[in-house]
Amino acid sequence: MLVVMQSHATPEQIQAVCARIESLGLKAHPIPGALRTAIGITGNKGAVDLGILEALPGVVECIPVSKPYKLVSRDAKPEDTVLRIPTPSGEVVIGGDKIALIAGPCAVETEEQLMTVAERIAKTGVRLLRGGAFKPRTSPYSFQGHGEAALKLLAKARERFGLGIVTEAVDHESLDLVERYADVIQIGARNMQNFSLLKRAGRAKKPVLLKRGISATLDEFLMAAEYLLSEGNYNVMLCERGVRTFADHSRNTLDLSIVPAVKKRSHLPILVDPSHGTGLRSKVLPLSRAAVAVGADGLLVEVHHAPDQALSDGMQSILPSELEQLVAEARQIAAVLHRSVN
Ligand code: PEP
Ligand code: MN
């Protein structure tokens, strides 16, 4: 259920409607929009009696939301959500007419590795650095990441090169740490339906980048995001990273058609990860171009200066020189769509 407020409704009227909703044992989520505030209601088992709320001052109408997701839906907020990620070198904007690039190694390996690649990345103008400290690996014998030591290195790179940090949390314990060090908390594909982790991330004070599960439908993806918003975290961006199909020419099948599908249904920004989406270095550039062309709000790419020596995902990591080309081309394609890369 959504309560749509008048454009000139006062903060007191909005507060009174929220209080009334809460008094019914339900949860109120005011969603300020460009024109008016809508108030999402969750916690109801069935239909809520419309009459009570519609009679309150400042209310235009109450509309039942038929979709299973509510807060992430465009019904709740017609205009795009635009995220502002603070970094030591100013804000990075994601969504609306701004496209953001996130680049870095799959994992933080050594100080030398991270600083070398971070320096090259910063030189290309990319302002968000990725790098896993906690790695969800298929095999328990594969490199699992250096944990907090890696987070400390990311924090060092952050200060040295003015980059915002995006890094993955795999459980509650790592989320506590990641929330402290990073600017964006990444929830990986394998954890897209880890509901207790989603609830914890929903209570975090940092933005969340939520990756699509390897076999998740659009509804499942949006419902996972709904967990984050329902716990109070509205700073959420989605990320398509390829799904499992019968195709054997690439690691995954990058489902670019989900970008316009998400945009139709949700106000949240959606990024594309062509690295995990293809698993192959030579496919990262062409699919990055396509992702920007299809309307993605950002790209997440793996970059390594010596990919053959990478401890994980070397095959799909591009070289810093290729990132330069990617940035230049993304800017040109973005311009055609009246958008800009920041
Ligand atoms: C990653 O970004 O390094 C990663 C593990 O991604 P995904 O969760 O999409 O596999
Ligand atoms: Mn990886």
Roughly how many Å apart are the termini? 36 Å
CATH 2nd-level architecture of the largest domain: Alpha-Beta Barrel
Sketch the major β-sheet.
8 strands, parallel, barrel
Number of separate helices: 11
CATH topology call of the largest domain = TIM Barrel
Description:
The chain is of the alpha/beta class and about 350 residues long. The protein has two domains: about 1-65, Alpha-Beta Plaits; about 85-340, Aldolase class I (TIM Barrel, Alpha-Beta Barrel), CATH 3.20.20. Helix content is about 35%, strand content about 20%. The protein is built from eleven helices and 15 strands. The protein has helices spanning about 10-25, 50-55, 110-125, 150-160, 170-180, 195-200, 220-230, 260-265, 275-280, 280-295, 320-335, and strands at about 1-5, 25-30, 35-40, 60-65, 85, 90-95, 100-105, 130, 165-170, 185, 210, 235-240, 270, 300, 340. The longest helix is centred in the C-terminal third of the chain and has 17 residues, at about 320-335. The model has no long low-confidence stretch (mean pLDDT about 95). Manganese (II) ion binds near residues 106, 276, 302, 312 and 313.
